[in-house]
Every structure is written in C-alpha cells, then in structure tokens.
Amino acid sequence: MTLSQPSLDDRRFDDLFAEARSLIPTYKPEWTDHNPSDPGITLLELFAWLAEMLIYRADQVPARHRLVFLRLLNGPDWTPTGPLDEEIATTLTRLRSRYRAVTSDDFEALALAATTEAVRALALPMRDLGAGDEQGRLQRQPGYVSVIVLPGDDVADEGAMRDTVRVYLEPRRLLTVQHVIAQPVWAPVTAEVLVARRADVPDAAVRDAIVNTLTQFLDPRVGGRDGTGWPFGRDVYVSELYSELQGLSHIDYTVDIQLDSACLPHAYRCVRAEQLWDNQGDQIGLQLAPHHLPQATISPDAVVVARSFLAVRAVIGVTPVDGVMPTVVRRAVKDGLRILFHPLHNGPTGDGPWTIGSDRVLASLRARLAGVAKVTSVYFEGDPARVTTDERGVITVYVDENQLIDLQTDVVVGEP
After folding, report:
1. pTM (2 decimals)?
2. Which of 380, 356, 255, 357 lies closest to 309, judged by CA?
C-alpha cells in the first residue's frame, strides 16, 4: 500500500500573521499597540508575506535528497551513471522485480529467469525430487523445495543448465530451505489405436498422422490444449485423445483407443503411470503424479487402420467370486474379450475371413478370468448376416476379408 505524503505547505498569510501576533504578549509584554499602523505590526505582515512565498519549499524534495534515498536503496557503493529520473526509474523497476524465492511461484519464475535454456519449471515444496527412486521422491521432506527444470529441445548440456539455475537460486532462497534442481520424471504413454479411414487415404498416411497428432498433443513443450506444453502431473485421458483424432481429415471415426505405460529395463527417471478405470470397467486414462510428464512412445505398428467394421454388441453374464468387486469383474471380462476380438491380439486382421463362436468365447473366458466363479452366459448381436445362431444355440460372428470388428461389451454381474 502506498503511504500518503503529508502536506507541509498548509499555512497562508493570515495563519502566519495571526500566530506571530499571538506571541507578542509572551515575548514582549510592553508591546501593546497591535494596530496595522504600528511599525512592528507592519514588519510582522512583511515577514508573513515572505514566509508564505517561501514555505512551498517544505514540500519539495531536492535532487540531493533523492540521491541520498537512491543510495539507501542501492547500497553505499552505488554511484549514479545517468540522469536522476532514469536512475529513479531503474531503481523502482529493480525493487518491483522478483528476487527472493519464498513461494512456489517465486522459485518457478526465478528458475526461468536464470537461463534462457529452460522452457518450463515446476516447484514442489517439501519434496526431494533428486531421490534415486519414486518412493523417495514421493516422501514428505520438510525444509526442501524441488524445482523441475525442463530444457529446450536444443540444449546440449542439461547438467550445466541445472547448475546455472542452482547457483542463481542459492542467494535468493530462505536460510532454512534446501533447494533441489531436478530433471523431469517421465511416464511413458503407449497406445493401441483402432480407426476407420477414408477410402481415398493410404493406411501409412493415416498411421503417420495419428502418431504425429498424439505425440504432439502429449509433448511437454508444445503439447496440451493451449500448445504451451503438457502440464506437469496432468492425467492423460482417453476422451481427449479421441477428441484430437476426431479433427483429422484422414479418418472417418475412431473405434478404440487403449493406453498403457511401461518403462524399458534400467530406464533413468522413468515411472510407469497407473491406469484409471470407471465403474463399468472401461479405461479412463493414465494417472500422473505432480512431478511427472508424459513421454509419448506410440508406434505406428500399434495403429490399426481399416475401411470396414462390423458392429457387434456382446452381453456377458458372470458370477463373481465372493468379495470381488463388480468393477474388477467387468474390467477383467472386457479385457478378455478385447484379446479375442482386437486385431493386434487374437482378433481378425483383415487378411481373410474370420469367425468365432460363443462356445469358444465362453471357454476362453472361463480359463482366463480370475475373480469370476462362473460365466453364466455369452450373447452376441449384430448384422443378422454376420451374427448367426445354430441349432445348438451357439452364436457365431463372421467377418469378411478387409473387415474388422467394432465391439461394444456389456457385463451383467450376478450375485456371488
């Protein structure tokens, strides 16, 4: 808050003359003629007039006083090098700039100010992100502030960049704070994508467009909704990836996206992201911790493109093992069906005709599912020419060459 400046030039001629005349009995009691005709009174009027003309100076701050104030702000060794107004403006700008690192915003802003090689920064209090494993990074560490610094694409020596930030923050931190300048922790994001393409677009062009779109969307420097980089710790949602692919002119529609996360053996500062699921057993996305950034590792080989899909609805009835949550059962059933019908697993690849019967599905689910006491029913519905039932009640799903399956699954969970 700005302090109000007192006004010292608050007296006029009448005030000055009246005060001077009121002091006459105190200092000169024998002076009893206070009429304007008295020479002494005339002199008092003259002095009051002169004082009124000069008293304005009391509200003025001369240049030498301003220099004294500037030296108090800049230090005793400060010497002006330019005009006074420029020196004042420079000093005020410096005073209003951020110097002391107290809040997380302070650490982030100062880290970016330390070097032009850093494009983003994140400060997390009471965390030591320099720890060698994820358990240590997640532990509460009082007195610590960790700053993750994301370098630009063209930075040759990331260690030197972090050292620059560390040295810059050292005199600016609070006395009892231990600051750690850390690298990002990466959470790999892989995806199996199933799309229907337009007839006039080659498969390879569709795959490349999908991989490039998703990789750029998850990029920590230019990704995200606003193009300024994927936010630290923000979960990756399947629905957002659907939305991104919807804007591509290469594809007709997206059939399925399944996300996963896995680190290569001995990968440095790599953490597997946990999967998120809803109550119906459908995948929501991948969960990232506050210090994680996604690392898109989407392969074109995991993108399946086809022109024709057969829509099939599967209804599976199951009885869970006592104590197993229905959500877990639904997820297990849908995973089991996905393995049977997805072209990257055991489903049709489009290279030739393909069939599967409800008896085979039933046997596969019974052998595969844990937490399920009994698979009570398997039912399929779709195009009557492609989904048929024989005299034994076995339902068969048939697809032609160059055709894949768009599977929608409902799981009916009975009482244990």
Report:
1. 0.80
2. 255
